[in-house]
Amino acid sequence: MTTHSAASQPAVLVERLDGVIQLTLNAPQNRNSLQSPGIYEGLMAGLEELEQDRNLRAAIITGAGGAFCSGGDLRQLAAGSEDEVRTRMTRNTWLYRRIALSDKLIVAAVDGPAYGAGLGLAAACDVVVAGQNAVFCCAFTRVGAMPDAALFWSLPARVGVAQTRRLMLWANEVKGSEAVSIGLADEHAAEGSALPLAQKLTLRIAQGPARPFGRIKAGLRQAPMSLEQALGFQLDNAPGLFASDDFREGAAAFFEKRAPRFGRRQD
After folding, report:
1. Domains along the sequence of the chain with CATH
2. Crossing angle for the helix pair 161-170 and 151-159, to the nearest 10 degrees
3. Which stretch of DSSP H or E encloses residue 106?
4. For the chain, what is the mean pLDDT?
5. Which one of 12, 49, 109, 160 has the largest count of C-beta atoms within 10 Å of its C-beta?
6. CA 184 – CA 202 distance, rounded (Å)
7. Beta-bridge partners for 109
């Protein structure tokens, strides 16, 4: 990427490599708050690019300056009227929808704090990688608020209702290894940053079968399914995948005892 002075750097740094777009929240003076100027717009633009560019197959969301994302700006929230807060929150719902409804996998590389809506940003992603210094906190009740940022959807899906209740009510901090043990994070980089491990995982995603990954994501978004829902979902989706170029390549690679080369042709 091109190097800029700190004053001229955009609020979200964008890097593209090997089919992956990396979006780095770059407002360290505000601990990468989602209300920092340009953060929301930069994330939405990057996710739009992920959707529109067929050469991009995965994304990383991470933060600069030792923090992932501190969530909302308490000063702005306290100064706003109820209608102003509702307007801002309504706009932000599109960010979580964009992450959840994308057919492509999005990885959160969490270093430092992921608090409040920052936890929501991470938990909405498909894979969460926690670095050595990662700290997760559903911090809303600490300041007399209730969770937003799609957390009533994402947290129960990750950790179950009982654990969600504890996280939401008591606002305890959860660090990297514990986050993995309860399902809040998927991988833990015990030493150093989460970013190298997240980059390794997204490269694996980019080299993998895009349509099956997308269908798995869509199916799990509807979990838990009843038996009939699960059978219907597989009938709606699996036959087309078995008829795809990627499946033919995967089967050929299996019999030829070599690694498959997915994504060589569009279905």
Report:
1. 6-206 (3.90.226.10), 210-256 (no CATH)
2. 130
3. strand 105-110
4. 94
5. 109
6. 19
7. 62, 129
* 208 and 262 Cβ atoms separated by less than 8 Å: yes
Distance in angstroms (rounded) separating the CA atoms of residues 238 and 266: 17
- Contact, 122 vs 110, CB < 8 A? yes
The pLDDT tens digits for 153-190 are 999 999 999 999 999 999 999 999 999 999 999 999 99
Q: What is the pLDDT of residues 116-149, one digit of tens each?
A: 999 999 999 999 999 999 999 999 999 999 999 9
Q: Rounded distance, CA 154 to CA 163, Å?
A: 12
| Nearest partner of 50 among 193, 208, 200, 210, judged by Cα | 210
What is the reported pTM? 0.93
Report the alpha-carbon distance of residue 101 to residue 54 in Å, rounded. 17
Instruction: Say how far apart CA 228 and CA 239 lie, in whole Å.
Output: 17
- Residue 180's CB is within 10 A of a number of other CB atoms, namely 19
For the chain, residues with pLDDT lower than 70 are: 1-7, 265-267
Alpha-carbon distance of 20 to 59, in angstroms, equals: 5
* E-only strand ranges, 142-206: 173-175, 187-188
Amino acid identity at 64:
A
- Residue whose entry in the numeric block shows the structure tokens 């309860």: 182
Retrieve residue 83's tokens: 């209608």
Q: Are 12 and 26 in contact (CB under 8 A)?
A: yes
Residue 125, number of CB atoms within 10 A of its CB: 22
Task: Quote the pLDDT of residue 267.
Answer: 39
